[in-house]
Amino acid sequence: MRGDRVRDFVQTHFTETRSQRHLLRAAPKDIQESLIEHCSTDNNTQNEFPVVDSYQSLQEPPFQDAKQSSSSDSYQAFQDRTMSAYPPQGGHPPPGAYPPGHPHAPPQQQNGGGAVPDSYFDERRKGEVNELRNLLRNFATERDQQKKRDIIKKVIAYMTLGIDVSRLFTEMMLAIETRDLVIKKMVYLFLCNYATTHPELAQMCTNTLQKDCGNDDPMVRGLALRALCSLRLPQMVEYISEPLRRSLTDHHAYVRKTGVMGILKLYHLDQEAFERCNFVDILYDMLRDPDPSVVSNCILVLNEVMDGGMAINRAIMLHLLNRIHEFSEFGVLQVLELVPRYIPANEDEGYQIMNLLDPVLRTSNSGAVLATIRAFLAMANYASEDISMQVVARVKAPLITHVSSGSPELIYCLLQNVETLVELCPGIFDDEYRQFYVKYHEPTHIKYLKMDILPKLANPDNAPDIVAELAECVADANDTMSRLAVRSMARIACRDVGGPGCAESICRRLVELLELNVPHICSEAATALTHIIRKHP
User: What is the pLDDT of residue 67?
Assistant: First the structure.
């Protein structure tokens, strides 16, 4: 009977236990001795687990049992073997969990628990800047070009974050002696950033920069010249003038346009030296440069250094307008800014200028379109007859195109200009009134501006549609929108531009609004009715 209970217990709990010891401890006391005999004679359990000699072994600790079962191994060897078989699965083991010298023991335990080595407090491990200094000192011996770039990038990143890395000035100057253009750019940026705070160190790199200004690579020449002019130190003026003069006649356009911008930096640094070098005449001669980027930089610098801006004559104006298709968007704007300041000799010359500017209206740059409109209106002032209506009619389509597709900021700026043109030439934009309807996803400042424009576009043909649209906006959740819609309807009625019966229709709508019992709508409708009665008693 007891043998059957033992066998049933083993079959039930054998797969759930990890060792014979756990199996025995889980058994009731009345079958433990029989279970020991059973485990000693059972082939299956004997193959899986070591045989337990007696019931007394159940009362001994695990390591003591292991010590008895393995007479050849010591207790320490058994513990090492057990720890190696089950390494830590995460986190840190408790202090003393591993004996000294064990593979999983912390470094202090591996060294026998002695004192921390002195190298831990070495100067090289103190702070990020000292770590970068150690990397830069090994910069010349580093063969991997990508690693060199990463070292300099880390220095620039720290500088960008506001960490003071000026202590690395000497090491960075040594890194400038390289053929890698990327490294040179970053080192030049570092020098320009700390030149004003460390002028004595910046002078040490003058010879290197001057030598790079004569490099065979035009990119290196341009970058070195830009860095030399960006040091902005009064004592560097004598070293800047000659490289600047040479750069203006360089065969590469990048060096020439960099030299033109260097002239502007020299002007702000020392105006007397600028005047002695007679750079103004040189800049006027460079307006005929074959590269458009050089010409646009010359226009910018001349507008900056001359009182009242750059002087313009007929030859300069026609030369620039004939080449306007070659310029970038920045250059086009620079040229267009000159047109309103030019006074044409006669009416035909004004028409000639407008014909040259007409292709600019087809560009995707809204700034260029607005500058062209300004130039058109300026030329229209010198015409014998008023051609403002024709000019606005010509620019209406490009303006509407840009208003319907653009960012909210750009749309707001364009709408401001449209409002000015509507007031200047009434009736031109009346047929495009649907383009100024309020859209639900638009920002509020654009909605408010459209509310101001819509009453100015009303005429007998479109007034009913505009009034109906404004009546829909009265129910808007925004109180300001509701007020503006009521005011806009009142403006249409006061101006009496909607044709016969339009004012009466608007008054009826306003009376209906008084019955809504919405405080802000009722007050605004009452005010609007007051204004209409005063205008049309």
Answer: 40
